[in-house]
Amino acid sequence: MSPGLSHAHSIMKALGDLLADFCTFNDLIIGGTIFPHKTIHKTTWTSPDGKTENQIDHFAISQKWRRSLLDVRVKRGADVASDHHLLIAKVRIKLKSFKDFSDRPHYKFNTQYLKSEEKKVLFNCEVKNDETLEQHCLTLQEIWKSTCTDVLGRKTKQHKQWLSAETWAKIQEQKELKEKINQCQNEEQKANLRTQYGAVNKSVRTNARDDKKRFLHEMTVDAEKAAEQRDMKRLYDITRTLAGRNTNTNKPVKDKQGKIITSDVGQKDRWAEHF
Fold it and tell me: Which positions ≥6 away from 119 have C-beta within 8 Å?
């Protein structure tokens, strides 16, 4: 190992030598080796039995941008049902876009919870019981905001809309087990927690698969009703939701004069000429 570098382990295997040679040849810096952290914040892989840990996932950046790399470390709390841990690199970028959010909120509410009857009843009761509802439109807006914050909570990221409340409860249980595994020091207890984690993860996958099938069935039934009622807008929205956002990654190949080449042979010749 190179002197002065910070590694999780003192032994580098053959693949590690190949990676180091590749980075040296291409003038790259391995970010995980230059920032001092605890070993648990550098090891990126744990064996299924929990006895072996290695640093096998890396972040490489050009030597030119070395000063832009601020930190590289592992986030062990990220739960993705994998034996690999999430590797995070913090990079400083001088130029960034500016968006003015002063006239609109910075967050959204978890309106998907209104599908639950319990949440719906609680939400309606909170709104109806507020005596200031009829005072002013601004007061009404504050009531809705406070009620949404208390009952629904703020939406931090885009959730899969077909997941049921039961599945989300299982996902939360899985996250809690992941946190317990990371904090547990006893190997026997950790093995027991891993067994529980595997069972919950299997249940999450099964529930999510069933939820998606149910969601697709409901959407297709709704699309049939929209077609019968000649509601084209609703039918288009359902079709777009089911199709997802597909982007065409095939870009046209052009010759030196800027004309598009349509034949396969011409495109292959142009690529060969380019490289």
Answer: 113, 151, 152
